[in-house]
Amino acid sequence: EAGVTQFPSHSVIEKGQTVTLRCDPISGHDNLYWYRRVMGKEIKFLLHFVKESKQDESGMPNNRFLAERTGGTYSTLKVQPAELEDSGVYFCASSYEDTQIRKETQYFGPGTRLLVL
Amino acid sequence: QKEVEQNSGPLSVPEGAIASLNCTYSDRGSQSFFWYRQYSGKSPELIMFIYSNGDKEDGRFTAQLNKASQYVSLLIRDSQPSDSATYLCAVIRNSGGSNYKLTFGKGTLLTVNP
Question: Count H helices, E strands: chain B?
C-alpha cells in the first residue's frame, strides 16, 4: 500500500510569489489533514477535509491560504501571496473514516519544505 | 500555557538503557494520546496510542497515561542507536463530529549512544 505522498519535497520562492503544495492521501482514506511546522515551533493543525468537504479550517493562518480537495482525492494548498513567515514544513496526513481508532490513526506524508525569501 | 508540553532535550541514554519520555497536556477534555517518532527530515511515524489510564505495552515500547495528572509518558526499553529520533507527543480532544485533529508538543530529541 502506497503511503501519503506530497509534492514538491522542497520549494524556494520569493516573497509575493504563489506556491501550490499537493498531497495524495492513502487510497481509501476519506480524512485528509494539513499541518505545518515553523522553525522552533510545534506541528500545528491547519485544516481537515472529509472527502471533498472542509470539516474544520480553524487553523488556517489567514486568507492567503486556500485549500482544495477535488473529488475527495488529492488535495492542494495554495499560498498567495507568500510571506516570509509562511516558511516551514507543511505536512499532510490521512486516515480512514470508520472506526474511532482508524479515524484517529493518521499517516503522515514526508512534508514539503517551503522557504520564502 | 502550552497545550502539550514536552522537554525538548536532548535526552541522551546509553545503548541498552531505558529511555523515559514525558509529556503533559492542559486540556482535560483530551481523550486520545499518541506518540510519534520522527527521524530528521522524515515524516512523523505513529508508534503508540493510548486511551485509558494505565500502561500499554508494545514490544520495547510502553505508553503510560494518567488523566488525573494530565500526564503521558513513553518508555523505551533496551534502547538502540536506531531509536535516536525526535519523539512527538500528540493529543486529540475529540469534541464531536469527525474532526480528529492532533495537537502536538514540540518533541523530545532522543540520542542513544552505542
Answer: 0, 11
